[in-house]
Design a protein that fits this description.
Length: 730
C-alpha cells in the first residue's frame, strides 16, 4: 500500500519504491510536514513535528500561538494569522481583511487518481497510483481546502494539488493559491533552477541558498524562456550519482512562482504555484477553484536518478499522445529555409529533394495565410494566401503527399495582428486596457482567451483548415508574452482572473484539437522553447526546444531540458551553417548527432545546401531510424557537461533492459593532447559484455563504468562521435 494512515500516531505515510513522505496531525488539527526522503519502513515519526518542544502547540500554550505558527513545519501554510514565512493561501473576506487558518477535518484514501477539471494533470491506473485527500476547513470563512497527494510508486513521484470550495455565502477573494509546499530543516542546501532567455532556454543554474527568500517566476503569461517552473534543493556537492535532491516541477503553462525561504530558525520552505502577481480569483458561495498540479520528487542518488524518474513519470503519466511510443516522422520545416519567402513551387521543390533523402514530412511554417509576407500582419486571418499557395492548400497537401511526404502546418491561434481583418471587426478581442494603446510585441496582440466566443473562433480557424486537407502535424506557436492585462469580456472585479483564464482557454482549445483530431501529431512552440512545460505535454508529445539550432548552443539547452524532461519531448533539428543565430559553423555530422537526442528533423533549404551535406542526410535519417526507439524509450545518463568543463559534452541512453547503449560525445573545443580522452561511463550492466558497434572491441560493463572508455582523439572544434554498444552476453 503506497498510502497509509496510522491512527495511533495521526500520521499519513506515503511510500514510493525509494522514498517516503510523511504528514502528521497535531491535536488541534494542524497538518504538519513530518518527513521527506529515503524510503523508511517505520512510521514512528510524529516526534519530528517537534510539537513537544518549545514553542508548544496552541492548545497547550495559546499565548504563544504566533511563535508556533512561524516555526511549525506545515503542509499548506496560510497567510495573515502569524506565520510570517511565504504563504500558499491568501484569502480576503467580505470585511476586507486577509486571514485564513485551516485545520484537519477528514481524509480519504483511494486507488487511482481523479483528473483536474480544465487542467492538464498526471494520470494512472488503480494499480499505478494512489491518492490521499486531506480535507481541511477554515470555520470562519466556511472554506474547504482539499489537499490532494497522488503517489506514483514506481517513478518515485508524488503529485500535489489543491482545491478550494466556498461552502459559505461570503464572497471570498483568493489572492494567492499555490499548489505545494515542503518545509524542511536546512541541509546546507544549494538551489538549482533552469534559466535563460529567448534562444538560450533552460540552462542549469546552481547557487548556495542564502537567508531570506529567493525565487524564480514568470509574470509573462506563459511559463517563459527566462525562468522555468522547476526548483531543486540539493545537498552541497550533489553530483549525477550522489547527493540528496528535493525537487518540484509545475504542471502549468502560465505565470508561476517557485520560491525557497531560509529563515531565522534555519528552516527551509520551498513553495510552488500560480504566481500571485496580478492574480485574484473571486470565489463566491458554492464555487470551487482548482489549483494546478505540482510534481514532487526526492532522489537520494543525485541528479541522474531524479532525471530518469521524471522522464519515466512524464512518459508514463503525463503524455497522452498516440505518438508517445512511436517514431515521429523525420520532418523538414521551411522556417530557416525560406522564412516568409515561399510559394507552392518552392515548397514542392523542397519536398522533392527531401523525399530523395528519406525525409518523411514537410512542414509549412509561418506566412501561408492572410496577406502575411513578414511578421507585421494577418494573425487571426487564417485563410490561405492563394497568391503564395497557388492552387490552394488542398492542392499543395495532395501534391506533397503524391511526392511521398506527409504534410504539416504552422499556426499561432492565440494571437491577433493589429493589421488584420479580424482586428477590424473585433478590436475588443485583443487583450488591452481600455483607453490605452496596448503594447505591441512582434507587431501583435494576444487574444482574450477568457472569452468563450474568442476561444470558439480561434479553435474553429485551426479546425477548419485541418478539416480541409489531410494534414498530419500542427506546430502551435505563441510569439509574444502578455501585457496590458485587460479584458473587455470580464467584469471589473474579475480582471485579475485574466492571466489564469487565458491559460484555461488555451488548454480548452488544445483539448478540443486532440479530441477532434486524435491522430494529429501536435508540436507546441513559443518563440522556440518559451512554453516548454509539463502542462503542454498533456496535449503534445513534443515541444520545439529553442529557436537556437546551433549544435553547440543546443548542448546546454538540451542538457537543461533533459535534466527533467524525456528526450522524446525535445524538438531538435539540423539546420544550415553559418548558423542563423550564432554565425557558428559546425560539422554537419555534429548537427545530426546533437539533433538525434530529440525528435529529429531538418530546418534548412535542402535544394541549396552543399552536395556534401545533402549526401549525408540519408545516412542521418537511417541513423535516426536505427536509434530512435532507444533514445525515445531509454534511460538517460549525463556523463559530462560542456557547460561545466568548457571542453566537451557527453551523455548516453541505455535500454531499460541494458541490452544496448548509445553514447554521444561532442568535443566542443579541441585541446592538442594527442591522446584519447578517458571517460567513466554509467548505465551499463556491470556483468554484461558489450561490443562496440562497427568494431570487434568488447568491454565488460564494469570496465566501462569503473575503468572508463577511451574516446578516439580527433582534431577540430565541435567534432562529435556516436558510440553504440550492444550486449553480446548476459
Ligand atoms: C517562432 C518559432 O519558434 C519558429 O520556429 C518559427 O515558427 C517562427 N516563430 C515563425 O514565426
Amino acid at each position: 500500500m503506497a498510502v497509509r494512515y496510522y491512527e495511533d500516531q495521526r500520521i499519513f505515510k506515503l511510500d514510493t519504491k525509494n522514498t517516503t513522505y510523511m504528514i502528521g496531525l497535531t491535536p488541534e488539527g494542524y497538518v504538519g510536514h513530518v518527513y521527506y526522503g529515503d524510503y523508511m519502513e517505520s512510521a514512528d515519526a510524529a516526534y519530528l513535528l517537534r510539537t513537544g518542544e518549545h514553542p508548544y502547540t496552541p492548545s497547550v500554550l495559546p499565548r504563544e500561538k504566533s511563535s508556533f505558527l512561524d516555526f511549525f513545519p506545515t503542509e499548506y501554510p496560510t497567510g495573515g494569522i502569524g506565520d510570517y514565512r511565504e504563504s500558499c493561501l491568501d484569502v480576503r473576506g467580505e470585511a476586507g481583511s486577509r486571514g485564513c487558518e485551516i485545520l484537519y477535518d477528514s481524509h480519504s484514501i483511494r486507488n487511482g487518481k481523479p483528473g483536474l477539471k480544465g487542467l492538464p494533470a498526471s494520470f494512472g491506473t488503480d494499480e499505478e497510483v494512489m491518492t490521499l485527500e486531506i480535507i481541511c476547513v477554515d470555520k470562519v470563512l466556511h472554506l474547504k481546502v482539499v489537499l490532494s497527494y497522488s503517489v506514483f510508486e514506481k517513478e518515485d513521484v508524488i503529485t500535489r494539488n489543491v482545491r478550494l470550495i466556498n461552502e459559505g455565502e461570503e464572497h471570498l477573494r483568493i489572492e494567492k493559491v499555490l499548489s505545494a509546499c515542503i518545509d524542511m530543516d536546512d541541509e546546507e542546501f544549494e538551489m538549482v533552477t533552469l534559466t535563460g532567455g529567448w534562444a538560450r532556454e533552460r540552462r542549469i543554474q546552481r547557487r548556495r541558498l542564502a537567508y531570506g527568500r529567493q525565487s524564480v517566476s514568470s509574470a509573462k503569461g506563459g511559463s517563459s524562456h527566462q525562468e522555468h517552473p522547476f526548483m531543486a534543493l540539493v545537498t552541497s556537492g550533489t553530483t549525477q550519482q550522489t547527493g540528496r535532491v528535493y525537487a518540484m516541477n509545475f504542471v502549468y503553462s502560465g505565470n508561476f512562482i517557485a520560491e525557497t525561504e531560509l529563515n531565522q530558525h534555519d528552516a527551509v520552505r520551498m513553495v510552488m504555484g500560480i504566481n500571485d502577481e496580478d492574480f485574484c480569483w473571486n470565489l463566491r458561495g458554492g464555487e470551487e477553484f482548482q489549483a494546478p498540479e505540482a510534481v514532487l520528487i526526492f532522489s537520494g542518488e543525485g541528479f541522474g536518478k531524479m532525471s530518469r524518474s521524471l522522464h519515466d513519470f512524464y512518459r508514463n503519466h503525463m503524455i497522452r499522445s498516440p505518438y508517445l511510443h512511436k517514431k515521429r516522422p523525420v520532418l523538414i520545416n521551411n522556417w530557416e529555409a525560406t522564412y516568409f519567402d515561399f510559394d507552392t513551387e518552392k515548397l514542392l521543390s523542397i519536398a522533392r529533394e527531401a523525399k530523395k533523402a528519406g525525409i518523411e514530412m514537410l512542414v509549412m511554417d509561418d506566412g501561408w495565410f492572410g496577406k502575411r509576407s513578414n511578421d507585421d500582419s494577418s494573425l487571426g486571418d487564417w485563410t490561405v494566401n492563394e497568391e503564395k499557395i497557388t492552387g490552394g492548400l488542398k492542392y499543395l497537401v495532395d501534391k506533397v503527399r503524391e511526392i511521398g511526404l506527409e504534410f504539416g502546418i504552422w499556426f499561432e491561434p492565440e494571437m491577433i495582428s493589429p493589421d488584420s481583418e479580424l482586428y477590424k471587426v473585433h478590436p475588443e478581442w485583443a487583450i488591452h486596457i481600455p483607453g490605452r494603446a496596448a503594447t505591441e510585441s512582434r507587431a501583435q496582440y494576444a487574444l482574450d482567451l477568457s472569452n468563450p466566443e474568442v476561444v470558439d473562433y480561434a479553435y474553429e480557424c485551426v479546425a477548419k483548415i485541418l478539416r480541409s486537407a489531410p494534414i498530419s502535424y500542427v506546430k502551435w506557436d505563441m510569439n509574444r508574452q502578455l501585457s496590458d492585462l485587460g479584458s473587455a469580456y470580464l467584469d471589473r472585479d474579475s480582471q485579475q482572473e485574466l492571466f489564469h483564464r487565458y491559460v484555461l482557454g488555451l488548454y480548452e482549445m488544445q483539448e478540443r484539437l486532440v479530441t477532434e483530431f486524435p491522430d494529429l501529431l501536435l508540436e507546441n512552440c513559443a518563440s522556440g522553447g518559451g512554453r516548454f512545460d509539463p502542462g503542454m505535454f498533456y496535449y503534445s508529445p513534443q515541444i520545439w526546444c529553442s529557436d537556437d539550432t546551433d549544435a553547440v548552443e543546443r548542448l546546454a539547452i538540451q542538457e537543461g531540458t533533459a535534466l527533467i524532461y524525456p528526450l522524446s519531448t525535445m524538438g531538435a533539428h539540423v539546420s544550415d551553417c553559418p548558423n542563423h543565430m550564432t554565425g557558428r559553423v559546425t560539422p554537419f555530422e555534429t548537427r545530426g548527432h546533437v539533433a538525434l537526442a530529440g525528435t529529429f528533423g531538418y530546418e534548412l533549404d535542402i535544394t541549396k545546401i552543399s552536395e556534401k551535406d545533402r549526401e549525408m542526410i540519408p545516412e542521418q535519417v537511417e541513423m535516426y531510424h536505427k536509434y530512435n526507439d532507444l533514445v525515445r524509450e531509454g534511460d538517460y545518463y549525463r556523463i559530462a557537461s560542456y557547460r561545466e568543463n568548457h571542453k566537451y559534452d557527453c551523455y548516453l541512453v541505455a535500454a531499460k533492459d541494458k541490452s544496448e547503449v548509445l553514447m554521444t560525445f561532442v568535443q566542443v573545443q579541441c585541446a592538442p593532447v594527442f591522446h584519447g580522452k578517458k571517460i567513466r561511463l554509467q548505465g551499463f550492466d556491470e556483468k554484461s559484455v558489450y561490443q562496440l558497434d562497427g568494431t570487434k572491441q568488447a568491454y565488460t560493463g564494469e570496465m566501462l563504468m569503473k575503468g572508463g572508455f577511451v574516446i578516439d582523439f580527433a582534431q577540430g572544434d565541435a567534432v562529435s562521435r556516436l558510440y553504440h554498444f550492444v550486449r553480446i552476453n548476459r
